[in-house]
Design brief:
binds uracil; globular; Aldehyde Oxidoreductase, domain 3; four-stranded antiparallel beta sheet; 16 helices; 44% helix; 3 domains; 16% strand; Pyrimidine Nucleoside Phosphorylase, Chain A, domain 2; binds calcium ion; 440 residues
Protein backbone atom coordinates (compact mmCIF):
# COMPACT_ATOMS: atom_id res chain seq x y z
CA UNK A 1 0.00 0.00 0.00
CA UNK A 2 1.48 3.37 -1.04
CA UNK A 3 1.50 5.87 1.82
CA UNK A 4 0.68 8.72 -0.60
CA UNK A 5 -2.69 7.06 -1.32
CA UNK A 6 -3.58 7.19 2.39
CA UNK A 7 -2.70 10.90 2.47
CA UNK A 8 -4.76 11.47 -0.70
CA UNK A 9 -7.78 9.65 0.77
CA UNK A 10 -7.79 11.76 3.92
CA UNK A 11 -7.04 14.94 1.95
CA UNK A 12 -10.27 14.41 0.02
CA UNK A 13 -12.20 13.84 3.24
CA UNK A 14 -12.69 10.07 3.02
CA UNK A 15 -12.82 7.80 6.05
CA UNK A 16 -9.71 5.57 6.11
CA UNK A 17 -10.13 1.78 5.94
CA UNK A 18 -8.84 -0.45 8.74
CA UNK A 19 -5.98 -1.58 6.46
CA UNK A 20 -5.00 2.05 5.76
CA UNK A 21 -5.07 2.87 9.46
CA UNK A 22 -2.95 -0.17 10.33
CA UNK A 23 -0.44 0.92 7.69
CA UNK A 24 -0.36 4.48 9.12
CA UNK A 25 0.43 3.18 12.63
CA UNK A 26 3.04 0.74 11.32
CA UNK A 27 4.68 3.47 9.22
CA UNK A 28 4.73 5.86 12.19
CA UNK A 29 6.70 3.31 14.22
CA UNK A 30 9.11 2.67 11.30
CA UNK A 31 12.10 5.06 11.41
CA UNK A 32 12.38 4.61 7.60
CA UNK A 33 9.12 6.51 6.99
CA UNK A 34 9.87 10.14 6.11
CA UNK A 35 8.61 12.77 8.55
CA UNK A 36 7.01 14.76 5.70
CA UNK A 37 4.61 11.97 4.76
CA UNK A 38 3.51 11.43 8.37
CA UNK A 39 3.19 15.20 8.87
CA UNK A 40 1.06 15.58 5.72
CA UNK A 41 -1.33 12.87 6.89
CA UNK A 42 -1.51 14.40 10.39
CA UNK A 43 -2.49 17.75 8.85
CA UNK A 44 -5.13 16.08 6.65
CA UNK A 45 -6.56 14.41 9.79
CA UNK A 46 -6.38 17.70 11.70
CA UNK A 47 -8.43 19.40 8.96
CA UNK A 48 -10.83 16.63 7.89
CA UNK A 49 -11.15 14.70 11.14
CA UNK A 50 -11.74 11.02 11.82
CA UNK A 51 -14.98 9.29 12.83
CA UNK A 52 -15.34 7.17 15.96
CA UNK A 53 -14.53 3.90 14.13
CA UNK A 54 -11.36 5.34 12.56
CA UNK A 55 -10.26 6.89 15.87
CA UNK A 56 -10.70 3.65 17.79
CA UNK A 57 -8.90 1.62 15.11
CA UNK A 58 -6.01 4.10 15.01
CA UNK A 59 -5.70 3.96 18.80
CA UNK A 60 -5.51 0.18 18.94
CA UNK A 61 -3.13 0.05 15.96
CA UNK A 62 -0.82 2.58 17.67
CA UNK A 63 -0.96 0.64 20.94
CA UNK A 64 -0.01 -2.56 19.10
CA UNK A 65 3.18 -1.00 17.68
CA UNK A 66 4.71 -1.64 21.13
CA UNK A 67 4.31 -3.82 24.22
CA UNK A 68 0.77 -4.63 25.34
CA UNK A 69 0.74 -5.40 29.07
CA UNK A 70 -1.85 -7.69 30.61
CA UNK A 71 -1.28 -7.20 34.32
CA UNK A 72 -1.99 -10.16 36.62
CA UNK A 73 -2.53 -8.32 39.88
CA UNK A 74 -5.15 -10.39 41.67
CA UNK A 75 -8.05 -8.12 40.75
CA UNK A 76 -9.26 -5.77 38.04
CA UNK A 77 -6.35 -3.43 37.20
CA UNK A 78 -7.57 0.19 37.20
CA UNK A 79 -5.89 3.39 36.07
CA UNK A 80 -6.63 7.11 36.05
CA UNK A 81 -5.53 9.66 33.51
CA UNK A 82 -5.59 13.43 33.85
CA UNK A 83 -5.24 15.73 30.86
CA UNK A 84 -2.90 17.82 33.01
CA UNK A 85 -3.14 20.69 35.43
CA UNK A 86 -1.42 22.77 38.09
CA UNK A 87 -1.17 21.69 41.74
CA UNK A 88 -2.96 18.48 40.81
CA UNK A 89 -1.56 15.69 42.92
CA UNK A 90 -4.70 13.53 42.95
CA UNK A 91 -2.76 10.40 41.93
CA UNK A 92 -0.69 10.39 45.14
CA UNK A 93 -3.90 10.62 47.19
CA UNK A 94 -6.27 8.34 45.33
CA UNK A 95 -3.90 5.51 44.36
CA UNK A 96 -3.17 4.54 48.01
CA UNK A 97 -6.79 5.18 49.08
CA UNK A 98 -8.17 2.97 46.30
CA UNK A 99 -5.58 0.31 47.21
CA UNK A 100 -6.59 0.51 50.89
CA UNK A 101 -10.18 -0.29 49.80
CA UNK A 102 -9.10 -3.39 47.88
CA UNK A 103 -8.61 -1.87 44.40
CA UNK A 104 -5.58 -2.61 42.21
CA UNK A 105 -4.01 0.51 40.74
CA UNK A 106 -1.50 0.04 37.94
CA UNK A 107 -0.37 3.45 36.84
CA UNK A 108 2.11 4.69 34.33
CA UNK A 109 2.58 8.42 34.68
CA UNK A 110 4.36 11.15 32.81
CA UNK A 111 6.77 13.94 33.61
CA UNK A 112 5.79 17.57 33.76
CA UNK A 113 6.11 19.64 30.62
CA UNK A 114 5.35 23.33 30.13
CA UNK A 115 3.02 24.71 32.78
CA UNK A 116 1.73 21.34 34.03
CA UNK A 117 3.27 19.08 36.64
CA UNK A 118 3.96 15.36 36.28
CA UNK A 119 3.52 12.61 38.84
CA UNK A 120 6.88 11.00 38.01
CA UNK A 121 8.75 14.21 38.89
CA UNK A 122 6.77 14.51 42.13
CA UNK A 123 7.56 10.94 43.21
CA UNK A 124 11.24 11.37 42.36
CA UNK A 125 11.43 14.17 44.94
CA UNK A 126 11.08 11.43 47.61
CA UNK A 127 14.63 10.34 48.56
CA UNK A 128 15.46 6.99 46.92
CA UNK A 129 12.16 6.59 45.06
CA UNK A 130 12.47 4.61 41.80
CA UNK A 131 10.03 5.29 38.96
CA UNK A 132 11.76 2.90 36.56
CA UNK A 133 11.08 -0.71 37.51
CA UNK A 134 11.24 -3.97 35.57
CA UNK A 135 7.73 -5.02 34.53
CA UNK A 136 7.70 -8.04 36.87
CA UNK A 137 8.55 -5.88 39.89
CA UNK A 138 5.94 -3.27 38.92
CA UNK A 139 3.26 -5.95 38.79
CA UNK A 140 4.42 -7.63 42.02
CA UNK A 141 4.13 -4.31 43.90
CA UNK A 142 0.70 -3.61 42.37
CA UNK A 143 -0.41 -7.09 43.49
CA UNK A 144 1.07 -6.94 47.02
CA UNK A 145 0.58 -3.26 47.92
CA UNK A 146 -2.42 -2.59 45.67
CA UNK A 147 -0.82 0.35 43.89
CA UNK A 148 2.35 1.06 41.99
CA UNK A 149 3.18 4.22 40.01
CA UNK A 150 6.01 4.21 37.48
CA UNK A 151 7.16 6.21 34.47
CA UNK A 152 6.13 5.32 30.96
CA UNK A 153 8.54 2.93 29.25
CA UNK A 154 9.75 3.66 25.73
CA UNK A 155 8.22 0.38 24.55
CA UNK A 156 4.69 1.69 25.06
CA UNK A 157 3.01 2.85 21.81
CA UNK A 158 6.18 3.93 19.97
CA UNK A 159 4.03 5.16 17.05
CA UNK A 160 2.54 7.77 19.38
CA UNK A 161 5.97 8.95 20.49
CA UNK A 162 6.92 9.74 16.88
CA UNK A 163 3.56 11.29 15.98
CA UNK A 164 3.35 13.42 19.14
CA UNK A 165 6.78 14.92 18.44
CA UNK A 166 5.72 15.69 14.85
CA UNK A 167 2.38 17.19 15.94
CA UNK A 168 4.20 19.50 18.30
CA UNK A 169 6.08 21.15 15.40
CA UNK A 170 3.35 21.02 12.71
CA UNK A 171 0.45 22.73 14.55
CA UNK A 172 -1.54 19.50 14.68
CA UNK A 173 -1.82 18.96 18.44
CA UNK A 174 -5.31 20.49 18.67
CA UNK A 175 -7.30 17.67 17.08
CA UNK A 176 -9.72 15.65 19.19
CA UNK A 177 -9.16 12.34 17.32
CA UNK A 178 -5.38 12.83 17.50
CA UNK A 179 -5.38 13.78 21.20
CA UNK A 180 -7.81 10.98 22.10
CA UNK A 181 -5.88 8.32 20.17
CA UNK A 182 -2.54 9.55 21.55
CA UNK A 183 -3.64 9.38 25.18
CA UNK A 184 -5.66 6.19 24.85
CA UNK A 185 -3.01 4.25 22.89
CA UNK A 186 -0.74 4.47 25.94
CA UNK A 187 -3.57 3.67 28.35
CA UNK A 188 -4.69 0.60 26.37
CA UNK A 189 -1.09 -0.63 26.12
CA UNK A 190 -0.69 -0.21 29.89
CA UNK A 191 -3.27 -2.97 30.31
CA UNK A 192 -5.75 -1.41 32.76
CA UNK A 193 -9.23 -2.91 32.41
CA UNK A 194 -10.89 0.06 34.08
CA UNK A 195 -9.83 3.60 33.15
CA UNK A 196 -11.05 6.83 34.74
CA UNK A 197 -10.40 10.05 32.83
CA UNK A 198 -10.03 13.43 34.52
CA UNK A 199 -10.51 15.95 31.73
CA UNK A 200 -9.56 19.38 33.02
CA UNK A 201 -11.42 22.48 31.92
CA UNK A 202 -10.41 26.10 32.44
CA UNK A 203 -7.56 28.57 32.28
CA UNK A 204 -4.93 25.99 33.26
CA UNK A 205 -6.21 23.16 31.04
CA UNK A 206 -5.35 21.78 27.61
CA UNK A 207 -8.95 22.64 26.60
CA UNK A 208 -10.65 25.77 27.82
CA UNK A 209 -14.34 25.11 27.10
CA UNK A 210 -16.76 22.54 28.52
CA UNK A 211 -17.98 21.56 25.01
CA UNK A 212 -14.45 20.72 23.82
CA UNK A 213 -13.77 18.78 27.03
CA UNK A 214 -16.96 16.77 26.67
CA UNK A 215 -16.13 15.98 23.05
CA UNK A 216 -12.66 14.76 24.11
CA UNK A 217 -14.10 12.74 27.02
CA UNK A 218 -16.68 11.14 24.71
CA UNK A 219 -14.01 10.28 22.14
CA UNK A 220 -11.74 8.69 24.78
CA UNK A 221 -14.46 6.72 26.59
CA UNK A 222 -15.75 5.49 23.22
CA UNK A 223 -12.27 4.26 22.22
CA UNK A 224 -11.88 2.44 25.52
CA UNK A 225 -15.28 0.76 25.33
CA UNK A 226 -14.66 -0.37 21.75
CA UNK A 227 -11.42 -1.93 23.03
CA UNK A 228 -13.35 -3.78 25.74
CA UNK A 229 -12.30 -1.62 28.70
CA UNK A 230 -14.58 -0.17 31.37
CA UNK A 231 -14.53 3.63 31.19
CA UNK A 232 -15.68 6.67 33.16
CA UNK A 233 -14.85 10.36 32.88
CA UNK A 234 -15.15 13.49 34.99
CA UNK A 235 -14.74 17.02 33.66
CA UNK A 236 -13.17 18.98 36.52
CA UNK A 237 -12.29 22.63 37.01
CA UNK A 238 -8.75 23.92 36.45
CA UNK A 239 -9.46 27.64 36.87
CA UNK A 240 -6.99 27.80 39.75
CA UNK A 241 -4.39 25.34 41.05
CA UNK A 242 -6.26 22.36 42.51
CA UNK A 243 -4.26 22.17 45.73
CA UNK A 244 -2.59 24.96 47.68
CA UNK A 245 0.91 23.62 46.98
CA UNK A 246 2.55 23.80 43.54
CA UNK A 247 5.93 22.15 42.96
CA UNK A 248 7.17 18.60 43.27
CA UNK A 249 8.19 18.00 46.91
CA UNK A 250 5.59 20.57 48.00
CA UNK A 251 2.83 18.55 46.30
CA UNK A 252 4.06 15.32 47.89
CA UNK A 253 3.85 17.09 51.24
CA UNK A 254 0.27 18.19 50.48
CA UNK A 255 -0.69 14.64 49.47
CA UNK A 256 0.74 13.31 52.78
CA UNK A 257 -1.02 16.06 54.77
CA UNK A 258 -4.28 15.16 52.99
CA UNK A 259 -3.94 11.43 53.68
CA UNK A 260 -3.07 12.26 57.31
CA UNK A 261 -6.34 14.22 57.61
CA UNK A 262 -4.58 17.57 58.05
CA UNK A 263 -5.69 19.10 54.76
CA UNK A 264 -9.05 19.26 52.97
CA UNK A 265 -10.45 21.15 50.01
CA UNK A 266 -10.83 20.76 46.25
CA UNK A 267 -7.78 18.50 45.91
CA UNK A 268 -9.32 15.96 48.29
CA UNK A 269 -12.78 16.39 46.73
CA UNK A 270 -11.54 15.58 43.21
CA UNK A 271 -9.39 12.70 44.53
CA UNK A 272 -12.42 11.12 46.22
CA UNK A 273 -14.65 11.61 43.16
CA UNK A 274 -12.11 9.98 40.84
CA UNK A 275 -11.24 7.28 43.38
CA UNK A 276 -14.94 6.36 43.68
CA UNK A 277 -15.11 5.81 39.90
CA UNK A 278 -12.03 3.59 40.13
CA UNK A 279 -13.65 1.43 42.81
CA UNK A 280 -16.79 1.11 40.64
CA UNK A 281 -14.83 0.14 37.52
CA UNK A 282 -12.71 -2.26 39.56
CA UNK A 283 -15.83 -4.00 40.85
CA UNK A 284 -14.91 -3.20 44.49
CA UNK A 285 -18.07 -1.14 45.09
CA UNK A 286 -21.57 -1.49 43.63
CA UNK A 287 -22.65 2.14 43.69
CA UNK A 288 -21.21 5.59 44.16
CA UNK A 289 -22.32 6.16 47.79
CA UNK A 290 -20.82 2.78 48.68
CA UNK A 291 -17.55 3.65 46.94
CA UNK A 292 -17.31 7.01 48.69
CA UNK A 293 -18.06 5.40 52.04
CA UNK A 294 -15.16 2.97 51.58
CA UNK A 295 -12.75 5.76 50.60
CA UNK A 296 -13.81 8.02 53.46
CA UNK A 297 -13.39 5.21 56.00
CA UNK A 298 -9.90 4.43 54.65
CA UNK A 299 -8.98 8.11 54.90
CA UNK A 300 -10.39 8.49 58.43
CA UNK A 301 -8.56 5.40 59.67
CA UNK A 302 -5.23 6.49 58.16
CA UNK A 303 -5.12 3.43 55.89
CA UNK A 304 -4.44 5.54 52.78
CA UNK A 305 -1.30 7.01 54.36
CA UNK A 306 -0.15 3.52 55.38
CA UNK A 307 -0.55 2.33 51.76
CA UNK A 308 1.40 5.31 50.47
CA UNK A 309 4.20 4.45 52.90
CA UNK A 310 4.22 0.82 51.73
CA UNK A 311 4.26 1.89 48.08
CA UNK A 312 7.12 4.35 48.68
CA UNK A 313 9.15 1.70 50.50
CA UNK A 314 8.42 -0.98 47.89
CA UNK A 315 9.70 1.44 45.23
CA UNK A 316 12.95 2.11 47.13
CA UNK A 317 11.94 5.41 48.73
CA UNK A 318 12.22 6.65 52.30
CA UNK A 319 8.80 5.90 53.82
CA UNK A 320 9.59 8.05 56.84
CA UNK A 321 8.51 11.09 54.79
CA UNK A 322 4.97 9.97 55.66
CA UNK A 323 5.64 10.83 59.33
CA UNK A 324 8.00 13.73 58.79
CA UNK A 325 7.58 15.74 55.59
CA UNK A 326 10.68 17.71 56.67
CA UNK A 327 12.67 14.81 55.19
CA UNK A 328 11.55 15.91 51.70
CA UNK A 329 13.86 18.32 49.83
CA UNK A 330 13.61 21.81 51.33
CA UNK A 331 14.24 25.06 49.46
CA UNK A 332 16.95 27.52 50.53
CA UNK A 333 14.70 30.56 50.38
CA UNK A 334 11.12 31.59 51.11
CA UNK A 335 9.85 34.78 49.46
CA UNK A 336 6.36 36.18 50.07
CA UNK A 337 4.18 37.35 47.19
CA UNK A 338 1.96 40.27 48.21
CA UNK A 339 -1.48 41.19 46.87
CA UNK A 340 -1.04 44.10 44.43
CA UNK A 341 -4.48 45.53 45.33
CA UNK A 342 -7.50 44.96 47.56
CA UNK A 343 -10.53 43.02 46.33
CA UNK A 344 -11.98 39.59 45.81
CA UNK A 345 -9.73 37.13 44.03
CA UNK A 346 -12.02 36.68 41.01
CA UNK A 347 -10.00 34.48 38.65
CA UNK A 348 -6.54 33.14 38.02
CA UNK A 349 -4.68 32.65 34.78
CA UNK A 350 -3.70 29.15 35.85
CA UNK A 351 -1.40 28.50 32.91
CA UNK A 352 0.58 31.59 33.95
CA UNK A 353 0.55 30.38 37.58
CA UNK A 354 1.98 27.04 36.40
CA UNK A 355 4.67 28.83 34.40
CA UNK A 356 5.62 30.80 37.55
CA UNK A 357 6.45 27.50 39.28
CA UNK A 358 8.33 26.35 36.19
CA UNK A 359 10.39 29.57 36.23
CA UNK A 360 11.46 28.79 39.82
CA UNK A 361 12.77 25.40 38.65
CA UNK A 362 9.77 23.18 39.45
CA UNK A 363 9.16 22.22 35.82
CA UNK A 364 10.72 22.15 32.39
CA UNK A 365 10.15 24.03 29.17
CA UNK A 366 12.25 21.57 27.17
CA UNK A 367 12.71 17.86 27.85
CA UNK A 368 16.35 18.41 28.88
CA UNK A 369 15.81 21.06 31.59
CA UNK A 370 16.85 19.92 35.08
CA UNK A 371 14.24 20.49 37.78
CA UNK A 372 14.65 21.56 41.41
CA UNK A 373 12.45 19.19 43.47
CA UNK A 374 12.10 21.72 46.31
CA UNK A 375 11.02 24.66 44.13
CA UNK A 376 7.44 25.96 43.88
CA UNK A 377 5.02 27.91 46.01
CA UNK A 378 2.26 27.68 48.58
CA UNK A 379 -0.95 29.63 47.94
CA UNK A 380 -2.68 31.12 50.99
CA UNK A 381 -5.81 32.24 49.12
CA UNK A 382 -8.30 30.73 46.70
CA UNK A 383 -10.64 32.23 44.13
CA UNK A 384 -13.51 33.84 46.06
CA UNK A 385 -11.35 34.99 49.00
CA UNK A 386 -11.06 38.69 49.87
CA UNK A 387 -7.56 40.14 49.93
CA UNK A 388 -6.15 43.41 51.27
CA UNK A 389 -3.43 45.18 49.33
CA UNK A 390 0.00 44.10 50.61
CA UNK A 391 -1.31 40.94 52.28
CA UNK A 392 0.65 37.73 51.43
CA UNK A 393 -1.17 35.62 48.81
CA UNK A 394 1.59 33.07 48.41
CA UNK A 395 5.08 32.11 49.48
CA UNK A 396 7.67 31.12 46.89
CA UNK A 397 10.14 28.37 47.77
CA UNK A 398 13.30 28.42 45.71
CA UNK A 399 17.08 28.24 45.41
CA UNK A 400 19.03 31.44 46.10
CA UNK A 401 19.95 31.78 42.43
CA UNK A 402 16.42 31.19 41.07
CA UNK A 403 14.66 34.16 39.39
CA UNK A 404 12.26 34.73 42.29
CA UNK A 405 11.44 38.32 41.30
CA UNK A 406 10.33 37.19 37.86
CA UNK A 407 8.30 34.30 39.30
CA UNK A 408 6.64 36.59 41.87
CA UNK A 409 5.68 38.99 39.08
CA UNK A 410 4.24 36.13 36.98
CA UNK A 411 2.21 34.80 39.91
CA UNK A 412 0.94 38.31 40.82
CA UNK A 413 0.02 38.92 37.17
CA UNK A 414 -2.00 35.67 37.11
CA UNK A 415 -4.42 37.12 39.69
CA UNK A 416 -7.63 38.94 38.66
CA UNK A 417 -9.52 41.04 41.21
CA UNK A 418 -13.10 42.28 41.50
CA UNK A 419 -15.08 44.39 43.95
CA UNK A 420 -17.85 41.82 44.26
CA UNK A 421 -17.62 38.11 45.15
CA UNK A 422 -17.12 36.06 41.96
CA UNK A 423 -19.42 33.25 40.84
CA UNK A 424 -17.64 29.97 41.62
CA UNK A 425 -18.67 27.11 39.30
CA UNK A 426 -18.88 23.57 40.72
CA UNK A 427 -15.60 21.66 40.83
CA UNK A 428 -17.07 18.74 38.89
CA UNK A 429 -18.69 20.19 35.77
CA UNK A 430 -19.82 17.01 34.05
CA UNK A 431 -19.43 13.26 34.15
CA UNK A 432 -19.69 10.24 31.90
CA UNK A 433 -20.67 7.29 34.08
CA UNK A 434 -19.47 3.70 33.55
CA UNK A 435 -22.77 2.96 31.72
CA UNK A 436 -22.09 5.85 29.33
CA UNK A 437 -24.72 8.17 30.84
CA UNK A 438 -23.75 11.85 30.75
CA UNK A 439 -24.69 14.39 33.39
CA UNK A 440 -23.82 18.07 33.70
N1 LIG B 1 -1.23 14.15 25.94
C1 LIG B 1 -0.88 13.17 25.08
O1 LIG B 1 -0.33 12.17 25.48
N2 LIG B 1 -1.17 13.33 23.79
C2 LIG B 1 -1.80 14.40 23.29
O2 LIG B 1 -2.03 14.46 22.10
C3 LIG B 1 -2.15 15.44 24.18
C4 LIG B 1 -1.87 15.28 25.51
CA1 LIG C 1 -4.87 -4.41 13.26
Amino acid sequence: MAFIDIIAAKKSGKALTEAQIDEFARAAADPGTPDYQLAALLMAIRINGMDARETAQLTLAMAKTGDMLSPEVGGVPVDKHSTGGVGDTTTLILAPLVAACGGKVVKMSGRGLGHTGGTVDKLESIPGFRTELPEAEFLRIAREVGCCVVGQSGELAPADKRLYALRDVTSTVDSIPLIASSIMSKKLAGGAQGIVLDVKVGSGALMKTLEDCLALARAMTDIGRRAGRRMAALITGMDEPLGSHVGNALEVKEAIDTLAGRSQGPLLAVSLALGAQMLLLGGVAKDEPGARGLLEAALREGRGLERLRRMIEAQGGDGRVCDDTGLLPQAEKATPVLAPQSGYLARMDTEQAGLAAQALGAGRLTKDDVIDPAAGYILFKRVGDYLREGEPVAELRHAAKAPSGEAARMLRDSLRFSDTPPHIPPLIRARIAPDGKETQ
